[in-house]
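ok so i was messing around last nite and threw this chain in just to see what happens. nothing serious, just curious
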Amino acid sequence: MSRWIKRITGIMLVMVLIITMTPVNTQAAKKIKLNKTKLTMIKGDSEYLSLNVYGGKGWKSSKKSVATVDKYGCVKAKGKGSCKISVKYKNKSYTCKVKVEDPAISEKTLTLTIGDSAALKLTGTSQKVQWDSDDISVATVSSTGVVKAVGEGYADITATVGDHFYNCSVTVKYDSAGALSDLAIQNYDIGRGVVSIVTNNGSGTLSIDGKAVYYSANGSMLDSSSDDNYCLAPGDTCALYYYGPTNADYDRVAYSTYDVVYNVEPSMYKSRAKGITVSGTKGADNVTAKVVNNSGDTLEFIKVACVFFDASGKAIGYEYHYSEGTSAGATDFMVGVKFLSVK
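result:
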């Protein structure tokens, strides 16, 4: 019996030895490596490197002006360049290649006029750059850094790489002289005042304020008159009328010459004129107009102006009316729009 007990005890001892030795064999076969073998950093950043086993010693940087490392494996990016960070385990060295970048934005300030564009670049980095504007009503920016001036004001354009931000302050101004040069203006003296037909050939919606000044034959200023259109979209045309001079009793006064001046600004409104269809039938001294609101919106008002010309092309009259078809989809007929004859 004692002999069998000894055999059983021997077998159990062997099994225990096998079980306890198995983890030791697995540990010995484990591949030792760093958590990262390549690292791209921005100057000023910190990053931890570590072995997948305990016991690594002698952390070292091949170029401390680029990156340093402490005894815990904390790497600090010091300056642009490349170096190697190494650590030893059981007399074997393990290395991580480190690249330190120092990005810079191409412009820190920009001054643009509405409609202009400028390209910003973030140099000195191979990493993904995200571009943003803090006010897209002033300036927008594309995914490649192209800035477009949209409206007057100030905006910050930011390039982001990781946790780092690079800013450009953008000032957008309005070029009133340039906008005025984009207007095609034809003035017509109809004897009782001046009609201006104005077309916006620019790229922005404009608010236009016009003023006519009338003079006598001896050069004395007789009177002035104003008209405006505060929402003339690119490609649209409007008619402005400057009422002729009158005396204290509102009787018309003859004038010899006139000047018309204009002031333009960016409009804060969105034009719906392209959604309005106007067709007319000409009578002997009037026009019957059909007005359809196809804009898709109910509008505050629709003003329709008529300028009348004779067979020779001379402007002989002007009149305007407000349509009642302001609701979306509405149709209105303005019957008998007559021009005021020359007096």
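not much to say yet. The helical segments are 2-29, 176-181.
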